[in-house]
Amino acid sequence: MTKGRPPTHSREKLLEKGIELFHQHGYHGTGLTTILQACKVSKGSFYNFFNSKEEYAVEVMEFYQALETDRWNQEFAQLSGSHFVKLRKALARLVEELDSCSENVGCLIANLSGEVGNESPAFRQAISRATSRVIKLIAEDMQICQQEGSVRTDLPPRF
């Protein structure tokens, strides 16, 4: 029995390329043909993974947030000091990184929120989920800071 050609693309590779394309061109500036050419996949292969460009964009946003959360956690773990000090260092690094970036890319989810936030329930729900996850993480960090006594405790960590 002969084996077929090994796949040269995967769902993850398509999502990675989506981050790049949507950062560069936005949702409306990135047509399906551009996606297919950049990912080097046929329309049929694309539709094996995603039902539509909209579904693809939603999954790209979720994938992006997971990658950024992992990156934050890895960098945060490398820092020393109290939780509050580590937060300040991590945020300072992030601001410095964004300031030194020659391309003005910013946060993909924020960028797409402004562009497609009101276009469909799928986009609104994806943006809401992403925002809720970030707020939850910030609240957890503030609660840890409150417990260590580095921030005021007269306000709840989550608003």
The class by helix and strand makeup works out as: mainly alpha
Helix fraction by DSSP (H/I, runs of at least 4): 55-70%
Q: Supply Rg.
A: 19 Å
Q: How many angstroms does the end-to-end distance come to? A: 62 Å
Number of strands: 0
Shape descriptor: elongated
Q: How big a fraction of the residues is strand?
A: under 5%
- Main sheet attributes: strand count, strand direction, barrel closure: none
Number of helix segments? 7
Low-confidence segments: none
User: What is the helix/strand order?
Assistant: HHHHHHH
Mean pLDDT: 89
What are the key terms here?
159 residues, mainly alpha
Q: Could you describe the 3D structure shown?
A:
- The protein is an all-alpha fold and 159 residues long.
- It has a domain at 52-148.
- Helix content is 70%, strand content 0%.
- The chain is built from seven helices and no strands.
- It has helices at residues 11-25, 32-39, 43-49, 53-78, 83-100, 108-116, 121-148.
- The longest helix is centred in the last third of the chain and has 28 residues, at 121-148.
- The radius of gyration is 19 Å and the shape is elongated.
- The mean pLDDT is 89.
